[in-house]
Write a structure and sequence with these properties.
Layout lengths: L1 H15 L5 H16 L3 H8 L10 E5 L2 H11 L13 E5 L3 H20 L13 H9 L19 H18 L7 H18 L1
Antiparallel strand pairs: 1-2
Helix pairs in contact: 1-5, 2-6, 3-7, 5-8, 6-8, 7-8
């Protein structure tokens, strides 16, 4: 939760959009992405297709003088010190509306699918063609529930059906986020990815 998660997702977005790292990102991140789209439909909707998250965290940036901090550590860990001193620092609160935070988070999730599915013949290597789709299909045959503890998975429904239903809901939600949070090209790539997944599943 919070800005740490958003910034981590932004960093992953940058790497997944770089042709030098796309194969690596597919191999390392597809299991987690597949686990997310395999969640029970209710959990998936509340996490990724909602304007309001059930939980929020307060964020703040910690500002301090690194030299003063190092001096404080060295001083207070010295065996000769009897009275520890206090270190002064400032906390600057980061604020974002809950709905805006949820939309930014979902838009980055959509961009992962768009980036990893995208294949540019003049840039990408031939072995990357359909690599993401094939990796998702491979992961759908695995038990990924241990990757997301605390979330529910629908054990009665086939994983392919659950993933397809969740992705269609994500696509519908993504269309409502155009143009403020998601661009048309990413939504189109998500649409192509969903229908290609469904074709491969048949």
């Amino acid at each position: 939760m919070g800005f740490v998660q958003l910034n981590a997702m932004r960093l992953a977005d940058i790497f997944s959009d770089d042709s030098n790292f796309r194969s690596y990102m597919i191999l390392c991140f597809t299991e987690v992405l597949t686990a997310i789209i395999s969640l029970s439909h209710g959990d998936f909707l509340s996490c990724w297709c909602s304007s309001n998250l059930s939980e929020t965290e307060e964020d703040a940036s910690l500002e301090y003088d690194i030299f003063a901090a190092v001096g404080w550590v060295l001083h207070n860990t010295s065996p000769d010190v009897k009275d520890a001193t206090n270190l002064e620092f400032n906390l600057t609160r980061n604020s974002m509306l809950k709905a805006s935070y949820a939309h930014h988070r979902t838009s980055l999730f959509i961009k992962f699918f768009a980036n990893l599915h995208c294949f540019v013949p003049n840039v990408c290597e031939e072995q990357e063609r359909n690599l993401f789709v094939l990796k998702v299909l491979e992961c759908l045959q695995m038990d990924l529930s241990n990757l997301l503890p605390g979330f529910s998975f629908d054990s009665d429904a086939p994983k392919f059906a659950t993933a397809s239903k969740n992705l269609r809901s994500l696509l519908s939600h993504a269309e409502s986020l155009i143009p403020n949070f998601v661009n048309v090209e990413d939504v189109q790539l998500l649409r192509i990815s969903i229908f290609k997944d469904n074709d491969e599943m048949k």
